[in-house]
Amino acid sequence: MTRRLVRTPRAQSARMNQRLRALAGWWLAWLVLSAAGAAWLARNELRQLQEAFETDARIAHRLLSQQVVQYDAVLATLALLGKAGAADSPEQRLPSVYPSILSVQRRERSGAWPDAALAEAEAQSRNQHRPALAQVEFARGRYRLVIGAEPVSYALDIDLAATVPWRDWPMDPKTSPSRVTIEQGAQQFVVQPGRVGADGWRFDFRKVLASESQAFDVVARRDVAWRELPWILMAAWALAVGVVLGGARMLLRQREARRRAEELLRLGQVARLNALGELAAGMAHELNQPLTALLANTQAARRLLADDPPDIGTARDAMGKASEQARRAADVVARLRRAIERPDGHGKREQVALQDAARSALYLLEPECTRRGVGVNFEPGAAVRVLADPVALEQIVHNLLINALQALDTIPAGRRRITIEVLDQGPMGQLVVSDSGPGIAAEALPRLFEPFYSTREGGLGLGLSLSESLAGDMGGSLAVDASATSGARFVLSLPLAGASA
Prior knowledge:
Blueprint: H1 8-81, H2 94-97, E1 101-108, H3 116-128, E2 132-137, E3 142-147, E4 152-159, H4 160-163, E5 178-184, E6 187-192, E7 200-208, E8 217-225, H5 231-305, H6 312-340, E9 350-353, H7 354-372, E10 375-378, E11 385-388, H8 390-407, E12 417-425, E13 428-435, H9 463-473, E14 477-480, E15 489-495
Helix pairs in contact: 1-5, 5-6, 7-8, 8-9
């Protein structure tokens, strides 16, 4: 059936809000844990991508540095070995050894450079005592490097694209997402295009080549898009968290159900013991009357037979044995009652809030109310504290609610309702349990609290009798409101805590 355990519109709203808050708490825990785990996975993935990017960029920088340092070494060697007026020009064979060197030019002491930029670079080289750049054209992918020496100065025309050692290059220039460029000032030569412009994260690397003469910047950039995050792992983590939290919630609900079942079992055991005590009291009450009559009759017969001459001794002995058996039967019943009699509630009383007793009983019977489709109206209000035995009070409320649930079985599901009220009535606190059932017949009202009297087929008729006895033991009372216009209305009255007797 549909869950219909409510408590008045305001209480129903509070109950619904409580359940929604509990469910929202689980969802919030799932969101927080999922987000935390996803953030850790994403951060770890970004860290690994950054480490790989920086490693590749450092390798690329080292390879390019090695290449440009070779050009310095080539020029230094040419300057050292160059001779003026040499018939052969061995430097012209360099392009065959170094494909990145497009051409080699030389100027002897008596000659002149064909380009003013070369002459200016030579003067700068002589001043700095190292090779100098003559002309940088990154748009064409070329630049010139000049060394001024005696008796011959040299100039190299270098191809940037051929300078890149692709065989040892750490990245695939066609598929790598990293963009690598060689830059000087506003000029830029693209070594590999990569993928740039993605919304997400950006890693940057910039370092100058290890050559004073060719102080170009090696610039690398890696843009990480959102789609590159480990979404499958993050989804798996969120699913795992959901499974764990779902299992934890199920375990908690099972634990709550087990605790409720254990409490119901304990209450049932107490109820059975008390019912057994009530049964023993009823049996003693029913058996003591005939046993007392039997005892009186046998004693009278013995006195009468004592005056009769025939078989006086035999009759006296027989009547004496009957008298002894009657006493023995009465003693057995008395011992049975003393052995299983309900414990006295006096001396065990303490301050108990009637609202707490009602909440505890409703908590135990909530699944039963849901199964039967019964709505419960309960407004706790201010706490009403009474002097009572907590276990006995709980059993009384439990019995009243069970009786109400059983009375509602004959009512259509949409009209099944139980109302619980807690009142402060001067020296007494009252707990009122009403139902929308068929009510109690007028002829049944006088006998309602008698032992073994029940209006329900198959009932033992001990629940209300026991509850009334328990209430009386605690200095209170249990009564039925005969003025109720519909359904049944039971009123439990107990002395307020602190009130005078």
